[in-house]
Amino acid sequence: MIATTGTSTTHTVQFGSAEIAFTLAVTDRRSLKITVGPDRQVMVEAPVAKSLDDVLTRVLRRGAWIIRQLEYFRRFQPLPTPRRYVSGETHLYLGRQYRLKLIPDEGREEVKLIRGYFQVLLHDATDHARAERLLTRWFDTHGRAIITDRLVKCHAELQRYGVPAPTSVTFRRMEKRWGSCTKAGGVLFNTELAHVPVPCIDYVVAHELCHLKHPNHSPAFYALLSQVMPDWRRRKERLETAVL
Ligand SMILES: [Zn+2]
């Protein structure tokens, strides 16, 4: 389980090399229903009596169909539109869409992720520039935390292949690059990675860490990357087609 949103919960299951994220709503239906929306959200409606194990089994059984639907709808994803930071607008966090809600509040100005919403508490709810700054700061903070966490896990794995620990870790917002490394053995990551699914973040992290042993795109580099992450191509493609 990754999060709880009101009466529905969100879950992920591993289907082959793909991760299927879905929202589960418990209803008074008599049978289980799985739908994939044009927004690429997977929705599962289940009768009260169904156990989570039953639901996961059913989702996995329909896995191939779900992936096909997701691929199909991906072709219709609109190009990224300029963000306006108004209520109702959706923003991606770890590959999932959350709606924005600007809420006037006299107290501390902050962003909270609650019940599937980015609640932006601010003194003046019509100050969209302020909302943008608050949300950008939230993504920077969460991006750093997530990337750091994945970096520690990934390096623990790569250590066995003789990959040294990075001499420095830097975070920055960048337009064109997800990550890079320095001659001195440091790594640099784009905090915008907070918008993409975790398997894609792991791909960027693994890629940069492999460079600490092979500072080029030589066959030895790809051999190492394929060894630690056999499905890296799929993750790379998913990252490249991600709409932020
Ligand atoms: Zn590279």
Describe this structure in words.
With 244 residues, the chain is α/β, with parallel strands linked by helices. The protein has 3 domains: 3-74, no CATH class; 90-139, no CATH class; 146-240, Metalloproteases ("zincins"), catalytic domain (Zincin-like, 2-Layer Sandwich). The chain has 6 helices and 12 strands. The protein has helices at residues 52-61, 63-74, 128-158, 198-211, 219-228, 232-240, and strands at 3-5, 8-15, 18-27, 33-36, 42-47, 90-93, 96-104, 110-114, 117-122, 169-172, 179-181, 187-190. The strands form 3 sheets. The chain has a 5-stranded mixed sheet. A hairpin with a 5-residue loop joins β4 (33-36) and β5 (42-47). α3 crosses α4 (198-211), α4 (198-211) packs across α5 and α4 (198-211) packs across α6. The model is unreliable at 1-6 (pLDDT under 50). The structure holds zinc ion. Zinc ion (ZN) is lined by residues 207, 211, 217.
What percentage of residues falls in helices of 4 or more residues? 25-40%
CATH class of the largest domain: Alpha Beta
CATH superfamily of the largest domain: Metalloproteases ("zincins"), catalytic domain
The assembly state of the depicted protein chains is single chain
List all distinct small molecules, including ions and cofactors, that are bound in this structure: zinc ion
Q: In sequence order, what are the helices and strands, one letter per element?
A: EEEEEHHEEEEHEEEHHH
Question: Would you kindly provide a brief summary of this structure?
Answer:
With 244 residues, this protein is of the alpha/beta class. It has helices at 52-61, 63-74, 128-158, 198-211, 219-228, 232-240, and strands at 3-5, 8-15, 18-27, 33-36, 42-47, 90-93, 96-104, 110-114, 117-122, 169-172, 179-181, 187-190.
